[in-house]
UniProtKB/TrEMBL annotation, chains A, B:
It holds the Pfam family Peripla_BP_3. InterPro entries: HTH_LacI (IPR000843), LacI/GalR-like_sensor (IPR046335), Lambda_DNA-bd_dom_sf (IPR010982), Peripla_BP_I (IPR028082). The keyword Chaperone does not apply. It comes from the Bacteria. GO terms for molecular function: DNA binding. Residues 19-73 form the HTH lacI-type domain. The lineage of its organism: Bacteria, Pseudomonadati, Pseudomonadota, Alphaproteobacteria, Caulobacterales. This is LacI family DNA-binding transcriptional regulator.
Length: 354, 354
DNA sequence: CTGAAAGCGCTTACAG
DNA sequence: CTGAAAGCGCTTACAG
């Protein structure tokens, strides 16, 4: 088949130029408004017309110009991901999940890292959302918990979905992760291994999940008749270094805890380091359970027992909520399974020797 | 100051609606074309006029509509990052570097992971670039080495910058990382520690950097009078698992190598695992040097000696090349320092005991 | 150095 | 169910 056989050349389209809605209309013998209706899946098009126009669209390989549509709609086809989570693994998994949901929708993903300690945070987000007239925004923790940011999105009439460990908004704008459950599993695991003196290195209080995870641990232990000693609770910052500091203070106690649960894996590795420096062997002398199940959890020695959050799935589910109205679905009633963390048992926690 | 004092309300602008070029023109008492000239920094505007118009722009907080500009320019204000590197750390650092350069430019970053083994790779990239009419694209390895992808970008007249360990394109479209140098540093380090039987676990041949790093190692050893035994060279896949397999085969040799250099850190951790399983202690019984200097290099035990690539800087420099024409600069003559990897010496490689 | 007209490729609002 | 007109907010090409 030569170029001259294509519909494009038969219709006398300029080569090298993309076909427009006018070309489709002319060739299909309808008005451009009708083509527009077909593109936008309007029900007010006769089936026969729809088929005819669709055939021309496919034949020409026509795709509507996003800028022109955006200008007319006063809305772009870009989804923003605004995040302040410092873990590369978290960020990349989240991005991939969002992209999973966006695939085939014609929407693209624009990434926007931010820093909540930056005084210009809100004005920068405002400028970003307003300039790009974003189709919608996805907010993982902790920026999802920032009401000043949310206020701006509401004011700009920008759809959003928040991901958080507690319900902060209407169901159609929330994806709640059951962090209480994940921490509870970790707590039960340690209690069932016989541990009674259990240390907890929490995340920073800026993250709602820190308190939720602490609550999950506390409740699970209580369920087993074990009280969480508040003197064994230390606040970390979700970083390796903060894990080191917290572990030093916990392991300097006498008697020291026989097990430590950390709010994330980075801090668990800080515990590993301090234990090694003190000549303690994990898990023989100290059991450790982390949270996040980073790839390195299964690379370090001993392999780290950790709570896994399905981050990629979370990204996908949040994006699906954002797209639901476009697909004629009710985002509040989306049939999404609850996001449940699960404990991945490896070698860093073991039964307490009597 | 009340709302009624603002220029916007004095001029009778509708509240809640963003000011347009027409508002600026009317208030400044010029035509919209003149405002357009000011926005686009045309030299053909009298200084007095420029100042007057700029004042109104600032006063109104006017920012041009990106969709409308995009439609008229036939080009969006989006930079695409197309990548297939599987390392989350690499990806996030690269994104941050690109964003460093984009900050303040009004451009946004659209991420596009891809898979070179996907037969639809080229058509998907074409659709992405064509639909969004990208301002430009940045390509890290290995997709930067894919000529079919580059052909499409050329055909679509989409500016791009490639990042690679060898020069594959004109200087204004290339950021070359001196991987030969990085691997050579690793090689010299091991030779200087007295190692003679040195194993090399390379990356996949699909990555040009694999061969370049091997060459750097070989040349540095030769420089020290040490020959790289080709029987001690094994191809890995840049994954932990492939590092495990490669390490098994290398450490089963008799005599086994006294040191192993790996094409990346992931594979180095595979070596750690095998050594541990075999009862070999690093660095006493085996020295290991990695490449990438992932965050976990300083978390594992012993801390991993590794070659660091300034990935974030690379992202920034590549993006600066892409933006140079917009800033009236010549991208080929940009004053960018050469990208030089550097060896970060830690504890995983030590002097060979006689 | 400045401006009135036409156009970028779509959609909304209104008719029929 | 379908269409002609006007508009989204900018820029290009042409005058002056």
């Amino acid at each position: 088949m030569t170029d001259d056989d294509t519909t494009a050349s038969r219709a006398g389209l300029k080569p090298g130029k993309r076909p427009t809605i006018n070309d489709v209309a002319r060739i299909a013998g309808v008005s451009k408004k009708t083509v527009s209706r077909v593109i936008n899946q309007s029900p007010f098009v006769r089936e026969e017309t729809r088929v005819k126009v669709s055939a021309v669209i496919d034949d020409l390989g026509f795709t509507p110009d996003v800028q022109a549509r955006g200008l007319a709609f006063r809305r772009s086809f870009l989804v923003g991901l605004i995040y302040d989570n410092p873990s590369p693994n978290y960020v990349v998994n989240m991005q991939q999940g969002v992209l999973d949901a966006l695939r085939g929708s014609g929407l693209e993903l624009v990434v926007h890292p931010c820093d909540r300690s930056n005084p210009a945070l809100v004005s920068e987000i405002r400028a970003f959302v307003e300039r790009q007239k974003l189709f919608g925004v996805i907010l993982p923790p902790s920026v999802s918990e920032d009401e000043a940011v949310i206020d701006v999105l509401r004011e700009l009439d920008c759809p959003y979905v928040r991901i958080a460990s507690v319900s902060l908004d209407a169901p159609e704008r929330m994806l709640v992760t059951n962090d209480h459950l994940g921490a509870a599993e970790a707590g039960r695991h340690l209690a069932d291994l016989g541990h009674r003196r259990i240390g907890f290195i929490s995340g920073p209080t800026l993250f709602r999940s820190s308190a939720v995870r602490g609550g999950g641990l506390r409740d699970a232990l209580a369920e087993r008749g074990v009280a969480l000693d508040e003197r064994l609770v230390v606040e970390g910052a979700y970083t390796f270094e903060s894990g080191v500091e917290a572990a030093k203070s916990l392991l300097a106690l006498d008697p020291r805890p026989t097990a430590i649960f950390t709010g994330n894996d980075e801090m668990a590795l800080g515990v590993f380091k301090v234990a090694r420096d003190m000549g303690l062997e994990i898990p023989r002398d100290l059991s450790v359970v982390g949270y996040d199940d980073l790839p390195m959890a299964s690379r370090v020695w001993p392999n780290l027992t950790s709570v896994r959050l399905p981050i990629r799935d979370m990204g996908r589910m949040a994006a699906e909520k954002l797209l639901a109205p476009m697909r004629g679905l009710d985002p509040a009633k989306l049939d999404q399974p609850e996001v449940r963390p699960s404990l991945v048992v490896r070698d860093s926690a073991t039964a307490l020797k009597p």
